[in-house]
Design brief:
By secondary structure, the protein is an alpha/beta fold. The protein is 36% helix and 18% strand. The chain is built from 15 helices and 17 strands. The strands form 4 sheets. It has a 7-stranded mixed sheet with strand order 14-13-12-11-8-7-17. Strand 15 and strand 16 form a beta hairpin. The longest helix has 19 residues, at 384-402. It is globular. It starts with a strand and ends with a helix.
């Protein structure tokens, strides 16, 4: 069966989930084409070629874009069956019924997609949404159907930029942080990708030109011994490769013994969800760490030559302008200005259907209705100044990116705006960064974030599709 796999956005990387689904469908004997709307233009002919279309929805941004793409598919090819697959396909975004997809597959979605195409071939109608968490054999992603990795995010270290390969060693997470979408689907479980498959995928990424590997696991140290085996084998086979991982603060501290080995093997940085430096907010999010432990994690990594790239969620229903100022002070005091993309200071909490936050009593007073277009429950901050501040900071960052302002300049602008919103809070002087270069720190050239709202620029290719 002729199947079109569409990816809309995967953090600026060559889409792993399109590659994984392609591998499974090709193995099952289907004819497959891929379209990545983050780097390719819409093509009516490719859509009408297909007997079935499956759209990857691994995160919030991708899901909102996928729903827009599905509308366009209905206009171009009204009779074609459409499926959504990936993490966000495991959530009931539209309680009254979805007009966007005929089938949805989350978890180990490859098996579900293959079975769905068999049903489509026999005209057996729609399929109930499926979350498959069975332990199944992993399939090697089919990278040859996708644009070259040179068209995607690079790892930057000063003026040196390296092509990045994007793979995973596991899916799911053993933790249940209340604000995170992963527990909605995985409920504290993980599914390991066999080491041989992970290493074979890394080998084909290296063959394609990758000099750096980003591991896409929600938490790379959930299965720490598995991850160590992967890193050791990768370094033995490709000693020139560098890499980065994502893990929780508590794992950075709990598994202190891995960082010397990882640093030697080429780990340049670790992404970790610090979220806030207000311990009460961290408790409500059930993050499992304190602000003091975040500071310890920075030290733990840096002693082995590894940088931290913390992610933040400054705006929650309980945030005050003083809390945002405290985040900026923490970043300044721990020499992290060069480690944080400015968009991180604007992130506002999303509350999708099924969110664990909906069961938190402290959430109820701020909660509004559910917005089916934005795929989140609406909420207002207990301190109304915070909602106004979030909009102001988002505007500063958007304008700064358009003007190609440096991170140093943007940090100063953000500091002044936050300081003005919290005039009664004692704070040190703003950092004087203009004209002074920031330290050179490893980073990816894609600054966006999985739980951010899509931008007008991301929507524009879909808006321009002729009806």
């Amino acid at each position: 069966m002729r199947t079109l796999l569409i990816s809309t956005y995967e953090l600026g990387h060559q889409p792993l989930h399109a590659a994984s689904a392609s591998g499974a469908l090709l193995q099952a004997g289907h004819e497959v084409r891929c379209l990545d709307l983050s780097v390719e233009v819409w093509d009516d002919a490719t859509v009408t070629w297909a007997d079935a279309v499956a759209i990857s929805v691994p995160m919030h941004t991708a899901t909102r874009l996928a729903e827009r793409a599905a509308q366009r598919i209905r206009e171009v090819h009204p009779s074609v069956p459409v499926a959504f697959y990936g993490l966000y396909a495991g959530m009931d975004h539209h309680p009254g019924g979805s007009e966007f997809a005929d089938a949805q597959f989350a978890g180990v979605y490859e098996h579900g997609l293959v079975g769905w195409l068999d049903r489509v071939a026999f005209r057996e109608g729609t399929v109930e949404p499926q979350v498959d968490l069975e332990r199944r054999a992993s399939v090697l992603p089919a990278r040859h159907l996708l644009p070259e990795i040179s068209r995607y995010a690079h790892m930057a270290l000063g003026d040196d930029e390296s092509p990045v390969g994007y793979t995973e060693a596991s899916r799911g997470c053993v933790h249940t942080c209340r604000h995170c979408p992963v527990p909605i689907v995985y409920d504290g479980r993980i599914r390991i990708i066999e080491p041989d498959v992970v290493l074979a995928d890394i080998a084909q990424l290296v063959e394609a030109g990758a000099r750096h590997i980003t591991f896409a696991d929600p938490d790379f140290l959930n299965g720490v011994r598995h991850s160590q085996r992967v890193v050791r084998a990768m370094h033995a086979r490709h000693p020139h490769l560098t890499f980065d991982v994502t893990t929780k603060v508590e794992h950075i501290l709990e598994h202190a013994d891995v960082w010397e080995e990882f640093g030697t093997a080429g780990c340049l940085f670790v992404v970790s969800a610090f979220e806030s430096v207000n311990d009460e907010i961290l408790r409500r999010l059930d993050k499992g760490h304190t602000a003091a432990e975040s500071a310890q994690a920075i030290w733990q990594l840096r002693r082995h030559g590894i940088e931290i790239r913390p992610s933040w969620m400054p705006f929650t229903p309980w945030t005050t302008p003083a809390d945002v100022l405290a985040i900026l002070e923490f970043v300044r005091d721990h020499d992290l200005i060069a480690n944080v993309d400015p968009v991180q200071f604007t992130i506002r909490l999303l509350v999708p259907q099924g969110s664990l936050l909906l069961d938190l009593p402290e959430m109820t007073p701020q909660l509004g209705g559910y917005d089916e277009e934005r795929l989140t429950y609406l909420w207002r901050a207990g301190d109304p100044r915070s909602d106004d501040l979030q909009e102001e900071l988002a505007g500063i960052v958007e304008r700064g990116i358009a003007e190609e302002s440096s991170d140093a300049v943007l940090f100063e602008r953000l500091w002044l705006a936050v300081r003005a919103a919290a005039p009664d809070v004692p704070a040190g002087s703003p950092p004087r960064l203009a004209g002074r270069p920031l330290p050179v720190r490893p980073r990816l050239t894609e600054p966006w974030f999985c739980c951010a709202e899509p931008t007008d620029m991301q929507f524009s290719p879909l808006e321009e599709i002729p009806a």
